[in-house]
Amino acid sequence: MELFWYIVLMTMLTIYVILDGYDFGAGIIHLFFAKKEKDKKAITNAIGPFWDANEVWLIASGGVLFFAFPTLYASSFSGFYLPLMMILWLLIFRAIGLELRGQVHNKMWESIWDKAFGISSLLLALFFGIALGNVVRGVNLGMVTDGVSTHEPHYFFLPLWNSSFSPHAEHLGIIDWFTLLLGVIGVVALTIHGANWIIFKTNSDLNEKLKKVVFNLNSVLLILVVVSLFIWHIIEPKPFHNFITHPWLWIFPLIAFSGLFGLFKVKSFQKHGMGFLFSSLFLFGGLASTVASIFPKVLPSTNAINPDLTLYNVAAHEYGLSVGVYWFVIAVILVIIYFTIQYRVFKGKMDDVGYGEH
Amino acid sequence: MEDMLFYDRMQFAFTITFHYIFPQLTMGLSLMIVYFKWKFLRSKLDKYNDAAKFWMKIFALNFAMGVVTGIPMEFQFGTNWAKFSELTGGIIGQTLAMEGMFSFFLESSFLGLFLFGEKLLGHKLHFLTGFLVFLGSWASGYLIIATHSWMQYPVGYEILENGRYVLTNFGALFSNPWLLPSFLHNQMGSVITSSFVVAGVGAFYLLNNKHSEFGKLFVKTGVIFGLVSSVLVAFPTGDLVAKNVVKHQPVTFAAMEGIFETEKGGSEIVLIGQPDVVNKKLDNKIAVPNILSFLTYQSWDAEIKGLNEFDESLYPTNIPGLYYAYHIMVGLGTIFIGLMLLAAVQLYRKKLYQTTWILWTLMFMLPFPYIANTTGWYTAELGRQPWLVYNLLKTSEGISPTVSSGNTLFTLLGFIGLYILLGLLFLMLAGKIINKGPETAQQH
């Protein structure tokens, strides 16, 4: 039962990253590449009717985490207190930037909310990458000092950074050079992803330029990914252990790299949705590979005293998990119906929707 | 430790109070928009569709505010109340996860279609999307109140040796006797808010002699919805909620009503007075004899336990706060019934649109349902203190063990700053939409 809910949760989080990821990416493109009003309009049209529903995947994932793995929810949310609060504030800024921009027709008003939307999208992509880095690196569970736990073994607290910025320090910070590297990968990957979505959903003049951007950033991404794989060896002595015992898991890195290499052909794609498909494959494969690598850990311990949190020692009780399957299956069927309807009504190019005009 | 508990409670209280300004209008207004759209489908009169479209603009703005201030609520269970989440997550996580899966997906998927899809969908399907948004928002309220009810009156659980709460009966979460009265009471409260907003904006138009056709429609609709909901919020729903409190939380009931001593021969109902907790009495009291006994037990001389019958360790932590919250809610509720009744009589006599003093009153009453709803929630929440799960888990035992008070104060200050900005923006933009007024079909 734990395993079922673990797969459900990971799937939901991956869907969230792929869906809200293109919103963040579109925001970054908006910040750096959209100079003309027409281009900005195209970008907000492309994500307008979707972003709110996409964000629900985050909330729903949080709900499933809370209900199925309450100990992990309690431990990680209190331990990552400050970055989570900042993510909340950024989500608020981003949302009001998008929703309020069109309410008043004034150049200054519009440029303020453009910046709010763009900068918070950029920082969110960075923060989510850093968050992934923290989960991979692990934390000082039980807040061990001088060989003694100062708290219950599943609780911890991390400041934003420590003075050394090192993932090897005894008292870790959220941001160190390793997690920052994953943050940058997050920004680059989601920028590519967002650009692909804009190409997919609009006929904007920006599209030709964006194809070049995707191509160039893709080279950067490839280098960063290779570097991070080497560094991973320093952090975690046996990162490929699971892949050796279960060779079928190689399918995930394979998917990730086929997405990554496929994108180098971005300029010759006939169908506009192809780029988006490839960047989605990269995100899916990359996240699944990470999960496969640390399985069954959900939050590794960096000290020798307290054990890792695994999906088995953080789960709720059997009865609750079983009864949840009934309502969850019904809910998933409904969600699939809603999304089919939504994407059907708003299929094709979004240039004429007129999002945010009042 | 004391500081930590204080800042954690302040942050939750501040963020939930601010958040609930928006959903109460969302839930009530979605019902009224669906009503306007339905009237349009039946009558084919453009004014109903124009009215629906006008309120959809306010709704969209309000909904966005509700979403962005709602996400921090779910996060805070884990960030600030980690111990509570760890211990009870297997139970309250059920209803909260269901809220995400059932109502948020429903609302958010169809809101986009509702706001931008009128031309693409045609009027009938457009009505349907509006109805689904309404359904989603009410389902959300239902599941939140199911969670709330479990904290007030825990059912279907077992406590393990390590202190964890384990769900043993899923159905009990929904057959909880606390749930249905509280849900209906709360929903009627939100319909009151939307009725006063719609009627208040209508009165504003009539008094300004602009958009008069819509002014009349809004005042009329607001008054009819307002009268029905103001009555229903008191009876039977409010009455049933109070009976749950007197039965299951008698000490809370005594504190709410300001009864320090059990009275022989029936309890009076306190209208006004200031509780003096140290000397255990009510100063400057105005009260009517025997009414409380009658309202509670339908018998003039029924005995109601006063605070003197309970051990002080069981007292709600903030008796004056609880007492005032409850009395403000009840006082405002009574005024709402009176005002809406008067307005409805004038409407029936076809004189309402000319009775300017009622129109002025309707306009100025617009903020008060927000206060009544907020103090109603304060009554429920302060009434449960010092318990997080009634009689089982203390609030002080639920906070996150590793988050320092300095960090919580930092984020509390951050939320205060951010929400002041949000509040100002909301008022400015809502004012702009209202001042511009509805557009008629001919203008399009």
UniProtKB/TrEMBL annotation, chain A:
Short name of one Pfam family: Cyt_bd_oxida_II
InterPro entries attached to this UniProt entry: Cyt-d_oxidase_su2
Coiled-coil stretches: none
Cellular localization per UniProt: Cell membrane
Segments traversing the membrane: 6-34, 55-74, 80-96, 116-136, 174-192, 213-235, 247-264, 276-299, 319-341
Bilayer topology: Multi-pass membrane protein
Keywords: Cell membrane, Electron transport, Heme, Iron, Membrane, Metal-binding, Transmembrane, Transmembrane helix, Transport
Family of the protein in this entry: Belongs to the cytochrome ubiquinol oxidase subunit 2 family.
Protein's recorded name: Cytochrome d ubiquinol oxidase subunit II
The organism of origin for this protein: Winogradskyella rapida
Gene expressing this chain: cydB
UniProtKB/TrEMBL annotation, chain B:
UniProt feature coiled coil, ranges: none
GO cellular component assignments: cytochrome complex; plasma membrane
Cited InterPro entries: Cyt-d_ubiquinol_oxidase_su_1
GO biological process: aerobic electron transport chain
Compartmental location: Cell membrane
Membrane-protein topology: Multi-pass membrane protein
Source species, domain of life: Bacteria
Classification via PANTHER family: CYTOCHROME BD MENAQUINOL OXIDASE SUBUNIT I-RELATED (PTHR30365:SF14), CYTOCHROME D UBIQUINOL OXIDASE (PTHR30365)
Protein family according to the UniProt entry: Belongs to the cytochrome ubiquinol oxidase subunit 1 family.
Protein name in UniProt: Cytochrome bd-I ubiquinol oxidase subunit 1 apoprotein
Species annotation: Winogradskyella arenosi
